[in-house]
Amino acid sequence: AYDRFGHAAFEQGGMNGAAHGFGAGGFADIFEDIFGDMMGGRQRRSSGGRERGADLRYNMEISLEEAFLGKTAQIRVPASISCSE
Q1: Is residue 81 part of a domain?
Q2: Cβ-proximal residues to 18 (8 Å cutoff; 6+ apart), any chain
Q3: Domain total for the chain?
Q4: What is the pLDDT of residues 39-80, one digit of tens each?
Q5: Residue 24's domain spans which residues?
Q6: Burial class of residue 30 in the structure, from the number of CB atoms within 10 Å of its CB (0-12 exposed, 13-18 middle, 19+ buried)
């Protein structure tokens, strides 16, 4: 549990009680409980703003040395055309 959630996995009352059962909402819910207010995530949902788009995932193979040294890389993300509304 520590590898996935850090100290928050073992704190009582932390994460709005989410530490008691990890399977209830999954990692995304735990992340939202911890960091949601920092970026205005909860406010954005209730304000009727734009809906969040789908997540993008890119796989990249790096060596252990590159991971240790903090490899940086540029990727091209295809942009969709925005409508006028």
Answers
A1: no
A2: 24, 25, 29, 30, 33
A3: 1
A4: 555 444 445 567 777 788 888 899 999 999 999 999 888 777
A5: 2-53
A6: buried
Backbone torsions φ then ψ of 67, nearest 5 degrees: -65, -40
The predicted pLDDT at position 37 comes to 62
For the chain, where are the alpha helices, taking DSSP H only?
2-5, 26-35, 41-46, 64-69
Residue with tokens 């008691």: 20
Nearest by Cα to 49 from 59, 62, 39, 38: 39
Rounded distance between C-alpha atoms, residue 65 and residue 23, angstroms: 34
- Enter the pTM of the model: 0.30
Burial call 16-25: b when 16+ CB within 10 Å, e when fewer = eebbeeeeee
Question: Is residue 7 in a domain?
Answer: yes
